[in-house]
Amino acid sequence: MDVERLQRIFSEHMHEESFTRIGARRGTWDISGTCDKPVPVTHFSRASGLAKNLAKGAKMPPMMELIMFTPCRQCESCLKYIGYHWRSRAQVELQEAKRSWMVTFTGSPDFHVWIDHACATRERDFWGQPPDKIFAARAKVYGQEITKFLKRLRKETKAGLRYLLIAETHDGADTSPFLRGRPHYHMLLHETDLRVSKRVIQAQWSHGFTDVILADSGSAWYVSKYITKAKQARVRASLRYGLLESETIKSIYDL
Q1: pTM for the model
Q2: pLDDT digits (tens, 9 = 90+) for 214-240
Q3: Domains, the chain, with CATH or none
Q4: Which residues lie closer than 8 Å to 198 by C-beta, 6 or more apart?
């Protein structure tokens, strides 16, 4: 973080209760909110210009230092906040869209075997990584296939579509040992102009099973609950999903 940005943070927030000044050039700033296990992240700036003229290996002392206590994004409080955050955004999109769908993507066993092969090819020590890293790698490859699904759907229908996509682990009581811990996806798919049929949506996914139903006012809560119940949940959404003013959204839909 550069000196100017640190100076701006000091000047703008030094009088807040969450900010603690330590001397002239050090401070702590708690932005963790209701997090149960805040994570400290240290930012400091070093002099630039004269440092280039110093002997190799020499370092300039920090000019300013800021320790920020950030949300862990894994405790129960953080997951509830993140779930509420995305639920609020989804409610905005549900109100603005002409129609919305809830889509669940479930990959076939062959598809998951292919994902493992792709992950092991990209990362040499894939199987030696901790479970959360393995899940993240699998979710990344899975998510790339959903991106292709969206491209095919847009090409087939010429419709404007916005979406909220959430990855979670297979962990139900009826889940087979092979699928347990592997990712699957839930999506809120919003129609912004032309209507898209259920048959066309399902036809664009060839890697397993899709459950497609029309979304209602309670769908935002239903989808966001997947975030609150799993630390490994991953969220992806359209640009400025749920953050735009009504007229701005309509102008984008008209493009």
Answers
A1: 0.77
A2: 999 888 888 888 887 767 788 999 999
A3: 3-70 (no CATH), 76-253 (3.30.70.1910)
A4: 101, 212
